[in-house]
Every structure is written in structure tokens, then in C-alpha cells.
Amino acid sequence: MGEEDAAPTEQDWLTYISEDLPRTVQESADSAISSARSLQRSSSTHLRSLQEFVPQIGTRYRYYEEAFFAKVKDELVSLREHPALTAGVAVTSCLLLMRGPRRFLIRKTLGRLQSEEAQFVRAENNVKELSLSVDLMKKESQKLFERSVLAERDMKRGHFDLKDAGTQIQGIARSVYKAETEAADLMDLLREIPGREALKLRADVASMASHLRQQRSAIDKKIIKISELGVPV
């Protein structure tokens, strides 16, 4: 069969529905009105034309009708072969057509974008705060390092000073011990001398000897404390 006898395509059918068919109907109506007005002059001629045109419209209409239902049949077969996809598309379409789900989807999408933006801003602020904290800790650490260096110097100097003081204290301790020995010898000598003057001198020596013992005791405690600090005396 030739190209004129082939079944029309879907595009041809849509073109016919939107353009050819309305124009054909309008032309047919105009032709019928014109035929009615000139019925007396050319009734037989227009009747034959109308009889020839009506079968042509019927034939073309049947072609497009068959193409339309064939397309619908193919779509139904495709939907039947993919039921899950069909159900998903149908449900999604219904939800998007409903005002409530559509607003919910838009609100959630915008809310998520706003939430991500808020999270980014919050994270950026946290980074800035952390950077400030790190800088502050660096400055504080530097100050502490400088103080530790000074303290170490002071400690070394103090260690030297303490050692020197311990040595001097040891010298005083030896002098006190020597003075105590002399006081004891003097007490023995004064006991052998009679008289009030000797008795008074013996009382003075006894008082000095007691004071020396107290000094020696305090010096010994200080020497022990210096030794406990790890400074040799």
C-alpha cells in the first residue's frame, strides 16, 4: 500500500485534531451555509460535492482514531509491564498535585537549605572562636615560658645563695660551739674563785652559755632544712 494509505502517526493525529479537523469542520459548515443559500441554483452540484467529501472525512477520522487507540494501548501495556514504576509515578504525581504535600516538600527543602547555611555559619563562628582561643593560649604559654626561665635563673641564683648561706651558717655554728666550750671552761674556773664578784661573773657566764645553746640549736635546725632542699652544706 502507498504512503497515502499508511496509518497516520501520533504527531499527524495531534496536528489533525488541533489544526486540520477544526478547519475542515469550519470549511464544511461554510460550504453547507453557502449551499443552503444557493440551493435553488446549484442544489444538485453541492449535494454531490457534499456526498463525496463526507466519506473522506470519515476515512481520515478512522485513521486517526485507530492511531490514537493504538497509542493508548501501547501505554497501557507499558504500564502493566512496570507496575512499581507506574505506582510510584502515580503516587508522586498525586502528592505533587495536592497543596499540602507540595507545601510540605517546599518547606522541607528550603528548611534544609537554611539549616545547612545555619550549620555552616555556626561552624565558621566556632572556628573563629577556636582560633582566638589558640592565639590566647600561645600568648599565655609564651608568658609562662618566660616566667619559667626567670624562675630557673632565680632558682639557680637562689641555690647558689642558699649554699653560700649554709656555708656561712656552718662557720657560725663552729664559732658558737667554740664559744660554748670557752663558757664551760670559764664556769669551771669561776667555781674555784670565792667571793661575791666571782659568783656574779659565774651567773653572767651561765646566762651567755644558755644563749649560745639556743643559738646552736637554731643553727642546727637551719642546716638540716638546707640539706633537705638538696643543697650541700
TrEMBL record:
Recorded coiled-coil stretches: 113-140
Annotated keywords: Coiled coil
Protein name: RGS1-HXK1-interacting protein 1
Organism: Salvia divinorum (Maria pastora)
